[in-house]
Sequence to fold (883 residues):
Amino acid sequence: MRRILLLFILAPMAGLAAPEKDDNVLRATLDNGLRVVIVRDPLAPVVTVEENYIAGGDETPAGFPGMAHAQEHMAFRGCAGLSADQIAAIYAQLGGNQNADTQQNITQYFVTVPAQDMEVALRVDSACMQDVEDSDEQWAEERGAIEQEVSRDLSNPTYKFITRLNEDLFSGTPYAHDALGTKPSFDATTGAMLRGFYRNWYAPNNAILVIAGDVDPATALARVKHLYGSIPRKTLPAHPAVNLQPVKTESFTLDSNLPYELVFLAFRMPGTDSADFAAVRILSDVVSSQRADLYGLVPQGKALGTDFGLAETYPKASVGYALAAIPAGSDPGPITGEMKTILAGYAAKGVPAALVEAARKGEIATAEFQRNSITDLASAWSQALAGEGRDSPSDIVEAMKKVTVADVDRAAKNYLTVQSAIIATLKPSASGEAIAGKGYGGAETTTAAPTKPVTLPDWAETAVKSLKVPQAVTHPVDLTLSNGLRLIVQTEKISPTVTVAGSVKHEPDLQTAAGKDGADSVLSELFSYGTTTRDRLAFQEALDDIAASESGGANFNLKVLKQYVARGVELLADNELHPALPPDAFKVVRDQSVQLVAGTLASPGYRTRRALEMALLPKNDPALREATPASVSALTLADVRDYYAQVFRPDMTTITVIGDITPEEAQPIFEKWFGGWKSAGPKPTVTLPAVPANPPSAVNVPDPTAVQDSVELAEEIGINRFHPDYYALQLGDHVLGGGFYATRLYRDLRQKAGYVYNVDNALRATETRATYAVTYGCDAENVSKARLLVEKELAAMRTENVNPAELQQAKALLLRQIILAESSEDAVAEGFVARALIGLPLDEPIRAAQRYFALSADDVRAAFEKWIRPADFVQVVRGPAPK
Fold:
């Protein structure tokens, strides 16, 4: 449930919110000290409730670094008047969109629900502020799951890196130990210890409640006062002091399962309390700019990718990092020297003034876009108030507006101290060859008993169990330009911004010429090198001038302020229709692609995916085509241009425009800049052929860096996205999963057995194919035990009707998720594009809701009996050999 800050590149800073408007923001402090902020955003009939406790990893007792994290888990295991099963059932029927997060200085609980269900969400949250169960019995079950979370993170090389980095940068302070926790500390933890932590820190006067979405603030505040007002305040312990010591400078290397080498230079930077923090934010944007010298290492062919950013941002300090990705097996010395020279140059000579101005404008624009997502808006307010101690998210925006070039130069001089930087290298460890393995150790074929219905409190029963087909909340206008390009426009007046998302319908496995595998990926990288009229730097400067972000290629996007929409579309069209594809850049990108492909082919991730594909698909299936170092090395610029000419056509392209723009405004702009784009010849074939059912098999893929096994069970099934049984299978899939403890697989594998931290099940269907899969992570000795539970549940779905309560809950999950999917402009735009490309109507979610609503338990059982074959799974295990 806690967020990992590093994946490939460290995650960006938490988003900003636009400066508040008084009539849309209501603040109050209850008599018991609970601070409440209600932000109205009528983007969709959706509300996010986010509870923030000002206690996290910093407040954990000595020797028990995961105590706050454990308590976060236990809040779902029973609160005042609510059992674990009741909490799970309520959240599931509200749409299943809830989670929690433990950071160093805060613990957050967040749930997004249809606006009509806000009070139910508030009742559950307030019950957990009143009291929690924290029984030894519940902790004994949850401990297995949280220890699997530890194992998962310890299998992530970037997590291990940040853990080591924190120990060096923050030694002797609470920041030195991640909030995750350890298996030994959890084994020594008791329910009584957890309850003590809860009693110390979970109090209204140590919490900030944020509500964002389509609410009437005054009405919402009245309900908060009613539900929370009687909870007594507490006398709080003192928060631990953070006394920073000198940085322990060192260099180290860690093994990695990534297909490339990562080299880091890390620095201790000011925290959010510091007056320098705004300048450091701007400095980070400047150094990470594609117009800056660090990114310049990429077009020079010296790095596969670069980044600069802030992470692990705490009140008293944060982490600044420079990052370069280089080919596996490379000597990290040269790139380390290059990064040091660049950063030292900025520290000594200052940064480009033009990039400071671009960074300021970009941050202000980002703040406007933040309002286009209800969940992001709640998160931004929570992070600003609870995580950073600010009065409003707009505080940091206003501070960055005032940052001068001199401020940024001073920050560079003071904090980009390369002589004391921590240098780290994540070095790939190649996977061993995939080997055949056994499926599972058990031979039982008994089916699991259906779950017992959960009795809910009266206040929840009627609210969450009412089922109705949702009303459409979007009303797109569907247009076709003169050249056949499809333009979908959805007007939203939430902020003065416009988002464009587009895609060219294509299939590289069918459209790439024989022997030219890799042409698509090389072309994709070349779009960042500008256009025939603007080189790489000039094109990026033009985007910076209007504070826009853009990405070109077969899947493209643009985010631009309303006032600059015409200019933004002009630049997007220039990139899509007239990419420069310069010869010098082609040679660099081709060489980089060769190196990346070589590293990928040896990586555990690739070998896992390849083993699964080879087992699922018939020999010579087009989807089994792959790029190799030899095929990429042989590519010419003419090959890439030929691929572009064949694939990029207006009559295969869909563009969605969403934001502060009407169809009448959008159509002439896109007609002007995209209308001259022409298609040549007949439309290409871009649909893969159907495939037969696969035979069962099992493969083990070694991963030397993993301490936990990642398991995928998958099979090809004989339907496609348009098959009528698709809906019954999806409904049954939501009986199995999607609702946390309230659904069968989570209940069996996590809540009861403690074998896994998470288990995911999904039906993925295209125009011609469909795959059903169940994935989970667990210790090697539990792989077969967990699979046996999965197969028992699938066998039960084939032979016994789900009970009425389960069917109702699965329908509630799906119907409410349709509403929740409208809670951000990005999600709406992406949904329109995806439906258009596959050939579904734009209002498919509402049509699907009608189908789900009408389905019976007999329909679900019949679909599972016909299509799901538990004995025919392909099992691929990545990590230690299963026992």
Notes: The chain has 32 helices and 25 strands. The longest strand covers residues 260-270. The first helix runs from residue 67 to 74. The two ends are 27 Å apart (CA to CA).
